[in-house]
Amino acid sequence: MSAIGNSGLLGSRFDALASNTIDYWMLPDDPSLTNHGVLDAVSAAPVLPDASLQLYIHVPICAQNCTFCAFTGANSISYKMAERYSKLVMWQLTDLMDRVQVNGHHISSVHIGGGSPDLLGSHVGRILEGVRALPGCTDTTEFSVEMTLSTTQPDFIEELVRHDVTKASFGIQTLDPDLRAHMRQPRSLTHLSKVLDMIDGRIPVVNADLITCLPGQSLAMALDDLQALIEHPSINAISSYLLTSGASPSLIGGLLSGALPQQASPHDRALMRLNTYGTLLRQGWVRRGTNTYIDPSAVPATTLDKISGNECLGQSHHAAFLLGVGASAISSMPGVRLEQVSSLGQWMAAAERKEHPLHLPKCATVPQADTALWVFPLRHEGLPQHRYDWMLANGALDDEQVRTLRTLCDEASCGTRPRATNSPSSARSSWATWYAC
Amino acid sequence: MGHLVRLLKKEANRKAVDDYISEGLALGNAIAAGELKDRRSVNNRQVADLHLSGTSAVSTP
Questions:
Q1: pLDDT at A248
Q2: What are the residue ranges spanned by the domains of chain A?
Q3: Which member of B3, B20, B24 has the closest CB to residue A18?
Q4: Minimal CA–CA distance to A65: which of A198, A211, A202, A248?
Q5: Under an 8 A CB cutoff, do A256 and B29 touch?
Q6: Any idea which of A7-21, A105-119, A218-232, A277-291 has the lowest mean pLDDT?
Q7: The model scores a pTM over 0.90
Q8: Where in chain B are the domains?
Q9: Domain A25-306 carries which CATH code?
Q10: Residues near A96 by beta carbon (within 8 Å), at least 6 away in sequence
Q11: What's the pLDDT at A22?
């Protein structure tokens, strides 16, 4: 980072893009925790006035092994095992719901991710049906489901349609066949049209993921990918991610050994991020969540209102409950971070015994009352004034955090807005565009 | 965005993020040096220490 503000990339204080964009909610390991103690903390998690409830169901299976991806899990699953896994995640979800005091509160969103949830086939219907029956699940609850284009089959899509899923999401990453090959993806995208034909306009939001700053990718290539998806008649949401070496050891190894082409210069990488967001905003697309933009002219307003945006898989603020189930899933709620074991076999064996298979070193029972402060750059709604006021009133922020926020506000205001301000809420839109990279 | 998130965290919690990045770098270095096979299991950070134990890499700076 530059010692002097505004002398770095694009007039910011930074000399390079961030190295990691995934798990900011993690805390130092605590060797003293026990399963019992963590589950007690789950039951004790208070329902504060600003409470919200989101659910995440993880499917730790994927047939692809892409270089950029930090996924860990199995690469195939049998029909019987998919059925068993679907039953077990529903057991775990209902058991966790029974333990938390927020049970019965409105569920704002349900996200089924992975991995490749499509590998559950028609068994995904069991999960969707079970979640629909939970107290707090209503017509305004968002349901979003991920899939992998090369493995998605019609029976899976039919279950999503039957259960009124709001958003279907899949990774394209890039249209360039050579870049795709570098990332160990199929060179061609023949499966895209097949999956879109299966969906046939019956799922209101169809989201495609793109990645910028891939090895060998130029600014022009990244923008060509973006424009092609903006113009695609069946895609009305785009999530654009920054490739970060901090997420995937395989990517780091490939770059260091020369097995992968080098990435663009830091300046061009910053331009990829800024131009991506700028292009989507100029097209009138609206941001939901961290990296997702939706075309409001192609999505009904009632559907758009449902999209809460939780792809970053962590709490938005201290009062939020995000319950994650399945192997590797992470939950966060007031005073608790809970991480499941990543071994599918170990997870299933424990769940069969009606035990929660926690990976204790990565769990925590430490309140992070300042969450809304450092999460707000990731959130489309910015930092609402009432949450900032709550943190100040409850002593959640130390002097350094307040000072850092004010300094960053000043820098962002000088760079992009005509009027200077110290108010975090009024500075949020400039941060969203300027510091998005 | 990642820079802002890190800067706005308390110093003690910032270290957990830094350690995670350093751990990934150590795993990547081990892959590049041929000390670790480039397989999906390398992504499993719950057993990162196990992966790194047989290499010359260290998980923290």
A1: 85
A2: 25-306, 370-437
A3: B3
A4: A248
A5: yes
A6: A7-21
A7: yes
A8: 18-61
A9: 3.80.30.20
A10: A42, A323, A325, A331, A356
A11: 67
